[in-house]
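Two proteins, back to back. First:
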Amino acid sequence: MLFDTSVRNMNKAVERVLRAQEEVATGRKVQRPSDDPVGAAFILDFRASIANLEQYQRNITWGRTALGGAEAALSGLSGLLARAKELAVGQASGTATAETRDVTAIEVRQILAQVLAVGNTRVNDKYIFSGYATDTAPFTAGSYAAYNGTADSIDVAIDPGVNIATNLVGSQVFQGAGGVYGSTNVLDTLDDLATAMETNDVATIQAIVGTLDNAVDQVSAATADLGARWNRLDEADFRHVQVKTQLRSLLSDREDVDMIRAASELTIGQQTLEAARASTARILKSSLLDFLR
């Protein structure tokens, strides 16, 4: 009976040492679900929640890249339209001549080509104004009323049940489709301006000055839309950082070992095991001597 008790004590001491060794080696309290079923369930939930937040943050990063490309493109477009208006105002005046208008038309054509290039901007080798047709250039020189893309938004999830568009539809920005930002076909307007200068059509040049104002407003509205989306991305990302920090703290409380306590437990366990072994050895020796007598 005494020997059996001693063996049980030694086995318990071995289990205590093995558990302490696992905790020190892994830094975790729960090695397997059976160690703490409730705690293990919390740990799995916390990890899943953190993984979801990190996916949302990856989506936000991708969205920022896409919106950043569109924002840079619109900034360039605004500058080009401002220059086109400046040229239109200058050639609409009484001091301009057929010759100056014909020469200025060359620059307007160059601006048109640059605007077309802006409309065909690519980010990561994908056309950003083509909707879903990201492998297709949305605009073609000489066909300024045509749009080769789609009217779809490319959405990403930034919160549970919350998606945000990461693109602008080129036909809405450059051609005024649907009146979303305005109703001016920027490409047609610049083409018409160049033609009016080439033909010395002063009345049309004067009329286009106002149309260019509308085009500038249209681009400004699209830029404001991008800004609002940026704000939503920033707000969502800030929330995710805060919540993820809290979840990691809760996960640490459930999962991480107090290394000082674990090291102390290992030392005590080893001492207890040695004592149990010594006790068992003494009992075994005594029993053997009694048997031999």
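And the second protein:
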Amino acid sequence: MHELSLCQAIADLVKTHAGGRHVEVVRVRIGALRQVVPESLSFCWSLVRDAEDMPDAELELECVGAEVKCRSCGRQSEITSAWSIWCPRCDSPDVEVLHGNEFLVTSLDVS
């Protein structure tokens, strides 16, 4: 379960930027291609936040779907499977990933 190590990395980043202030909310954007299970990440966050002395810090997740642009036909398309990244129009595997690779702490609420 790599979600636990991801939560530890999030906590390290949050503590650095919070500067000792009380952390209320941590917002994270996760792309569909990152193979992160949102429920597992939320569960692991509840463990990590307690261990890192941030017991009230809520984790808000924004899940981003996968979208590619085909270099062969030019079409932009959503991808429904992280295991098959190719153009649904022309079946070309020559695509540029536009969205879905994100894993980003977007903001914090501190007091």
